[in-house]
Amino acid sequence: MNRRTALRRTGQIAGATALTPSLLALLNACQSEAHLDWQPQFFSNEEARCISSLIDTILPRTDTPGALDVQVDRFIDKVIAETYSSEAQQHIRSEIAQFNEKCKQLVGSTFADANEKERMKILQAAEAEAGTFNGAVWGTAVGEQKPVGFYRSIKAMALGAYLSSEKIGESVLSYDPVPGGYQGCIPVSEVGNRWSL
After folding, report:
1. Which of 4, 32, 94, 110 is most exposed, with minimal Cβ within 10 Å?
2. Residue 67: which residues within 8 A CB-CB, separation 6 or more?
3. What is the pLDDT of residue 190?
């Protein structure tokens, strides 16, 4: 190998070494950016990104499907678009904006643009300051229900949509549309996973 070829290869190796961290950071930034693959009926794209990111953080995919796998974000968008009054719709818009402002104050970015560690910090703060639902007797709340705030209401809506989805009801939870006879005393080990009915 002559001297010119050796110098050229050394320069190429040095250049590649210097550029690799920058290229990896750029690729990671592109991969972590949340993109919508659906068209919202009610939310703006930015609001939909916030809702999708929020419910994906609350109910991520593990060994069971996550909230986005059963399209909980689309369900929430459809419910708000088709059942909320104009006043309630404006209220949810302002709550999303306030939530993102709190995120910016806490971690310096909106929820959708925050990394996993920052999202956990945001959710811990939201959980601490959110109101709670009153207890219920046979499905009826006991006492006067005080407002629980944006985070708690979206979380409750997401959990309800997730657990009542067809995929989760049939594939994750045990599903028995016509229960059999009553067996009062059986070991829990024989029951298996939780029942959706």
Report:
1. 4
2. 55, 56, 58, 59, 60, 73, 158, 161, 162
3. 78
DSSP-assigned beta bridge partners for residue 137? 140
How many whole angstroms separate alpha carbon 11 and alpha carbon 29?
28
Same domain? 155 vs 69: yes
Q: Each residue of 74-87: b (16+ CB within 10 Å) or e?
A: bbbbeebeeeeeee
Boundaries of domain holding 15: 1-32
* CA–CA gap between residue 163 and residue 37 (Å, rounded): 23
CA distance 37 to 183: 47
All residues at 6 or more sequence positions from 57 whose CB lies less than 8 Å from its CB, including other chains: 116, 119, 120, 123
Q: Do 161 and 64 reside in the same domain of the chain? A: yes
Burial level of 35, CB count in 10 A (0-12/13-18/19+)?
exposed
- Same-domain check for residues 67 and 162: yes
The reply to whether 103 and 28 lie within a common domain is no
Give how many domains the chain has, as a whole number. 2
pLDDT means per 10 residues in the chain (197 residues)?
Answer: 59 53 43 65 92 93 92 93 92 93 91 91 88 76 77 90 89 72 76 64
Nearest to 93 by CA among 25, 135, 154, 163: 154
* 60 CB neighbour count, 10 Å cutoff: 14
Q: Decide: 167 and 70 in contact? Cβ < 8 Å.
A: yes
